[in-house]
Amino acid sequence: MSDVSSDRVSDTTAKKADKAAAAAEAEAVKRETAQAAVEQISNGDSQSQIRQPVRDAIIKAAQLAREAETSARKRQHGKGKHTARERLDLLFDADTFEEMGRFSGGDINKGKAGSAVVTGFGKVHGRTVGVYAQDFSVRGGTLGQAEGLKICHLMDMAMQMKVPVVALIDSGGARIQEGVAALTQYGHIFRKTCQASGFIPQISVILGPCAGGAVYCPALTDLIIMTKENSNMFVTGPDVVKAATGETISMDELGGGYVHNAKSGVAHYLGEDEADAIDYTRTVLAYLPSNSDEKAPTYAYASGHTEREAAKRLKTIVPANDRQPYDVLEVVRAIVDYGEFVQVQELFAQSAIVGFACISGKPVGIVANQPNVRAGILDVDASEKVARFVRLCDSFNLPIVTLVDVPGYKPGSDQEHAGIIRRGAKVIYAYANAQVPMVTVILRKAFGGAYIVMGSKSIGADMNFAWPTSQIAVLGATGAVNIIHRKDLQKAKEAGQDVEALRSKLADEYEASTVNANLSLEMGEIDAMIDPEQTREVIEESLAMLASKRRVSHNDKHHGNQPL
User: CA-CA distance, 511 to 487, in Å (whole number)?
Assistant: First the structure.
C-alpha cells in the first residue's frame, strides 16, 4: 500500500475515532443530566416520571450554560475580575444559592444562554438574602428589558419575603440598541428601590463600571461598596467631560473607588479587591435585621478579664487638656464586644466616625466625634455622614450610642457657602426623628449647637451621661470671655495691664462656674456623672432597660420635609 493510501486510511480511522468519542461524550452528558434530573425529583413523584427520558433541549441548555461560564471566566479573569457566579460563591454560604430564570431573556436554540444579569436567593450567615449580579461577559452587562424585568421581579420577591437585597454591579449601562425600553427599566428599578428603602436593607457592590443613569440604582441604596481597582461610578465619563469642558481626566480620577470613598462620600467602604468588598458586605449584613419589622440578630457573649482591662484603659485615653487630640477609636474599642468595630465611610469626613459594633452580643450603631481630625468639629461633610448613618440605624432598629467630644460647627465662609445651615440641619432631623434606643456619653466637651445635635436629651436621646471632666456650654471658656468681658479686656489694654493674664483668670472663673456639667445635671439634661471605667457598664444597662421601647406615631402626616 502506498504512503498516500496509508495516510488516507489513518485519516479515516482518526475521523471515525473522533466521531465515536464525540458520540460517547454526548451520551455521557445525557446520562449525567438525566441522573441530575432524577435526583431533583421529589420523593412523591411516580416511577414513570423518574423513567422519563431527558429531552435533548435540556442537554443543550446545560451545555450552553457551561460554555457561557467558561467564556465568562476567560473574559473576566483576563481583567483581574471574577465572573458573576464566582462572586455569588463569595457572597453566599456554601451551596445555598438558588438561581431564578437562568435562561430568561436568552434563546437556547440560537446559542444565547440568558440575559446579562443573574438573580436569585441564598443564605448569608444562615439568613436568606436576595441578589442580582450583572454579568459583564454578556453584552457588557448592559441593561435591557429582559434584565430590568428580572431585577424588578427579584426586588418584588425580596419585599414580599422581607429579606435584604445585594446588587453586584458590573455594567456598561443602558443597552443602546433597545433605546427608551432600556431607560424605562431603570425607572422601574429606581421606583422599586425607593419602595424597599427603609423596609429591607439594600447594599450595592460596585465591581466594574457604573455610568450614566445607572449610578442612581446604587445611590438610592443603604450602602455602596467599591474596590480599589476596576470600580468606577460617574454620571458622565471622561470622554464626555473632555468634549463638554475640555478637561482631561482618567476614569479613576473622575469616579474611582478612592475618589468616592475619600472625596465625594458617595461610597461607604473601599475594598482591597472583590473578595474584600464582598466580605465587608457579609459582615455588615451580620449586624442588620432582615427587615424593618425585626430586631437585629443577637450573638452569644460572655464578658471577662479582657473587658475589665479595657474599662481600666478608658481613664488613660482622653487627655484632661481639652485642646490635646486623641484617637476616639481607642475609646470605642474599649467599650464594644471584643474591640470589634466595623467602620462606615472610614475615609470620608474623618472628624466624625460611624459604624457597627456589638454590646453584650447585641448590634448597635456607634457615632462619635474624632478629636484626632480637626478637633472633632462638625462640618458639612461630617454632618451628612452622621445624619445618614443615624437614619440607617433608626430604619433597622439598631440602638444608637453617641460619644461626644465636639467644639462646635466649623466656622468660616467656605462652610456657610457650602450650606452648613441646610446640611447641618440634617443631623438634627435624623436624631430628632429617631425612635430607637439612644444613649449618649459626653467624653470631654460639648459646645454650642453641636452639643444639642449630637444626641442631647433635648433632641430625643433616652439616657445621657458625662465623664467628670466634661465641659458643656454655649462656648468654650476663652471664646465666651472674649465676648462677655470684651469691654473689661479693652479697658485693661488701655490701662497697660496684662490682658492675657486677665483673660486667663476670667476664663478659669467662667470654666469653674459655667462650663462644667453641673448645670446640665441640675437641669436633668445629664442623667449621671460616671467614671470612664463605668462607660460600658452604664451603656449596657441602659440598653437593657430600653429594650422594650416602641415606636410612636405623633400625628397623621404623610412624612416630614427633611432638609436635602
Answer: 19
| 259 in Cβ contact with 301 (< 8 Å) | no
How many whole angstroms from its chain centre is CA 399?
Answer: 17
Of 368, 360, 358, nearest to 398 (Cα)?
358
- Give the pLDDT mean for 124-134: 97
pLDDT at site 69: 75
Burial class (CB in 10 A: 0-12, 13-18, 19+), 257: buried
DSSP 220: T
Structure confidence at residue 375 (pLDDT): 94
With cell 478579664, the residue in question is 305
Q: Active-site positions?
A: 212-213, 449-450
CB atoms within 10 A of CB 25: 10
Contact (CB, 8 A) for 209 and 232: yes
Q: Give me the pLDDT at residue 353, please.
A: 98
CA distance 460 to 456: 7
Q: Could you tell me if 423 and 564 are in contact, meaning their C-beta atoms sit under 8 angstroms apart?
A: no
CA distance 483 to 391: 37
Residue 74: predicted pLDDT? 80
Are 253 and 259 in contact, with CB atoms under 8 Å apart?
yes
Size of the chain, expressed as the number of residues it contains: 564
> Nearest to residue 410, comparing CAs of 329, 493, 352, 456?
352
Residues 461, 332: Cα–Cα separation, whole Å: 19
174: which DSSP letter? B
Which SS3 state, helix, strand or coil, does residue 68 take?
helix
CA distance 180 to 213: 12
Q: What is the pLDDT of residue 14?
A: 45
372, 412 Cβ separation under 8 angstroms: no
CA distance 517 to 529: 8
- 15-22 mean pLDDT: 48
Look-up: residue for cell 437585629? 296
Q: Would you state the cell numbers that stand for residue 36, as one nine-digit string?
A: 441530575
Q: Does pLDDT of 292 surpass 90?
A: yes
Mean pLDDT of 307-313: 91
- Continuous segment of H or E residues that includes residue 395: helix 380-395
CA–CA distance, 427 with 424 (Å, rounded to integer): 6
pLDDT band at 419 (very low <50, low <70, confident <90, very high): very high
Neighbours of 342 (CB within 10 A): 18
**Residue closest to 82 by CA, chosen among 231, 294, 267:** 231
Q: Does residue 50 have a pLDDT over 60? A: no
C-alpha cell at 453: 445635635
Q: Give the single-character DSSP code of 55.
A: P
